[in-house]
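Per your request, structure below.
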């Protein structure tokens, strides 16, 4: 069973003459135990598609199922709880809370799930350490570099061990060495029979980490390649 299955996804923005059809009937799958890359030129609909998968946007048409669950069939509160338990999202713009430390930001999913604050922050600090940022656990976002903020955002997505991790340009603010470290951690996370990782990226230096690469253009998936890691 696929971790993600999208069928006939359509999404438009604007009305009348200003209406722009961003997704034009997208079919997309991401398998359990694999890392799937979504690549293509800017403006082709990649971020819109993963935002629909993550529940941040609603599709105009089509169906999204995660781990066999048709989310549209669930009541709104059940949808929220399902995504809270099963989804980690790495935003391109980080979306860190400015008044919280790095560890507190990374602990947000655990706190939202009801974990005691000390336990949640300790676990988040451990995750930051795995990303080479343990020494900055008490720092506020305003004193962190862009690359450090990106790693805090990644820690926040991973800390509650979600079954689906969705990343929007996770290496965009990182140098090559740091980007490789992040992708290695994501690769390790993906190699699990009940987990999947979907990554939007323009960074062809990290393509070798993918199991499959879905190519997108003009609002549709044009073709899917099995990457080197899948055939090794």
């Amino acid at each position: 069973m696929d971790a993600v299955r999208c069928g006939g996804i359509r999404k438009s923005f604007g009305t009348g003459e200003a209406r722009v059809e961003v997704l034009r009937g997208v079919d997309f799958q991401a398998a359990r135990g694999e890392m799937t890359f979504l690549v293509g030129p800017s403006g082709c609909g990649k971020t819109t598609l993963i935002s629909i998968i993550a529940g941040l946007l609603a599709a105009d048409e089509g169906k999204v199922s995660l781990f066999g669950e048709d989310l549209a069939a669930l009541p709104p509160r059940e949808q929220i709880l399902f995504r809270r338990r099963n989804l980690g999202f790495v935003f391109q713009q980080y979306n860190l809370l400015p008044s919280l430390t790095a560890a507190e930001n990374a602990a947000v999913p655990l706190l939202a799930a009801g974990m005691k604050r000390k336990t949640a922050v300790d676990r988040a600090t451990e995750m930051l350490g795995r990303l080479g940022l343990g020494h900055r656990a008490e720092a506020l976002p305003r004193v962190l570099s862009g690359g450090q903020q990106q790693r805090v955002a990644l820690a926040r997505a991973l800390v509650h061990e979600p079954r689906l991790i969705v990343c929007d340009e996770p290496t965009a603010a990182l140098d090559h060495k740091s980007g490789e470290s992040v992708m290695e951690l994501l690769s390790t996370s993906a190699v699990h029979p009940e987990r999947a990782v979907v990554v939007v990226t323009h960074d062809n230096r990290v393509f070798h980490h993918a199991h499959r690469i879905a190519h997108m253009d003009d609002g549709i998936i044009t073709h899917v390649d099995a990457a080197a890691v899948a055939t090794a």
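The first strand starts at residue 2 and ends at 13.

Regards,
D.
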